[in-house]
Design a protein that fits this description.
This protein is α+β, with helices and mostly antiparallel strands. The protein is built from five helices and nine strands; from the N terminus they run ββββαββββαβααα. The protein has a five-stranded antiparallel sheet. Helix 2 (about 110-120) links the parallel strand 8 and strand 9.
C-alpha cells in the first residue's frame, strides 16, 4: 500500500486539468449552468493526488479541484523513471494495466492516465485502459494501481527477509 503524504507545505506541486464538464440544471426560470473539473496534482518525483471541483465558473471549479487534490496525496515508488512492477486495477467500469518500460520508451498512455502518470514523475511506462473511458473512473483506477505499487525494499521489510532473498524466490 502506498504511503499517504501528511504535509503539503514543502512540496512544489504542479496541477494538470484532466477534464472539465458543463452541468446543466433546469429550473422554472430556465437553465442554470455550472462546471465540474477533475484535476491531478503532483511533484513529478513520486507524489500525486487527484481532486474534483464544482463551481459556477471554470476557474473556480479548477481551483477547488486543486485544493481537493492536495488533500489526498499518495507517495508512489519509482524505479529509474518507471514503475517497479506490473499492476492491474479497476474502478467501476474502467480497468487499467500498467507495465514497466525500459529507458527511452516514454509514457505510452492516453488521456486521463497520461496526466496521472506524468504528474507522479513516470517517464517510461506502457499502459492500457479497458472498459470505460470516463475520465473520472480512469483517474481513480490509475490512482488505485499506483497506490498498490511496492518497491523491493518494502517487500523485503514486510516479509522480514533480506533484499537478496526477495529476488531469489
Amino acid at each position: 500500500m502506498a504511503n499517504i503524504v501528511k504535509s503539503t507545505n514543502d512540496l512544489e506541486l504542479k496541477d494538470r486539468l484532466v477534464a472539465i464538464n458543463r452541468v446543466t440544471k433546469v429550473t422554472k426560470g430556465g437553465r442554470a449552468f455550472s462546471f465540474s473539473a477533475i484535476v491531478v496534482v503532483g511533484n513529478e518525483e513520486g507524489i500525486v493526488g487527484w481532486g474534483l471541483g464544482k463551481a459556477g465558473e471554470v476557474t473556480a471549479a479548477i481551483a477547488k479541484g486543486v485544493e481537493a487534490a492536495k488533500k489526498n496525496l499518495i507517495r508512489v515508488p519509482l524505479l529509474n523513471g518507471s514503475i517497479p512492477h506490473e499492476q492491474i486495477a479497476r474502478y467501476d467500469g474502467a480497468e487499467v494495466y500498467l507495465q514497466p518500460a525500459s529507458h527511452g520508451t516514454g509514457v505510452k498512455a492516453g488521456g486521463a492516465m497520461r496526466a496521472v502518470l506524468e504528474s507522479v514523475g513516470v517517464t517510461d511506462v506502457l499502459a492500457k485502459s479497458k472498459g470505460s473511458s470516463n475520465p473520472h473512473n480512469l483517474v481513480k483506477a490509475t490512482m488505485a494501481a499506483l497506490s498498490e505499487m511496492r518497491d523491493a525494499a518494502t517487500v523485503a521489510q514486510n516479509r522480514g527477509v533480506s533484499l537478496d532473498k526477495v529476488f531469489k524466490g
